[in-house]
Write a structure and sequence with these properties.
single chain; 128 residues; mainly alpha; 1 helix; 98% helix
């Protein structure tokens, strides 16, 4: 009886040892799978970080380009405004030249009339 109990306990212990060994193996596989998953995620994170850096650089370059284009656009608009202002000044200058010529012609006409009047007076005074 003692031997049978011992054999039964021995068999039971062997089964427990076998179960525990299988559990250890299974948990070892789970740990190994988790390690591999962590390594894969770290690798993906590194790739993602590199991609983010590249995208950030591209964004900065595009922003700089857009700002550069904005500056060029602003300068072009300013150039158009300055050309318009120059055109208006040219028109104003032409009006001034025309008015000055007209004024000069009037003054020459008045001077001519004054000379005639002056000459006529001189003649009249000489004839007296």
């Amino acid at each position: 009886m003692y031997f049978t109990t011992f054999c039964f306990r021995n068999e039971k212990l062997k089964d427990q040892i076998s179960d525990l060994t299988q559990q250890i193996i299974n948990r070892g596989k789970i740990v190994q799978d988790k390690d591999e998953q962590v390594k894969r995620l770290q690798s993906e994170k590194k790739k993602s970080d590199e991609t983010n850096k590249k995208l950030a650089k591209e964004l900065a370059d595009l922003t700089e380009s857009v700002n550069g284009n904005r500056i060029v656009k602003d300068l072009r608009e300013k150039l158009v405004d300055e050309k318009e202002r120059y055109r208006r000044l040219e028109i104003e200058l032409e009006r001034f030249k025309t008015a000055a010529k007209e004024q000069l012609m009037k003054e020459q006409s008045v001077n001519k009339q004054l000379r005639h009047v002056s000459l006529d007076r001189e003649r009249n005074m000489n004839s007296l």
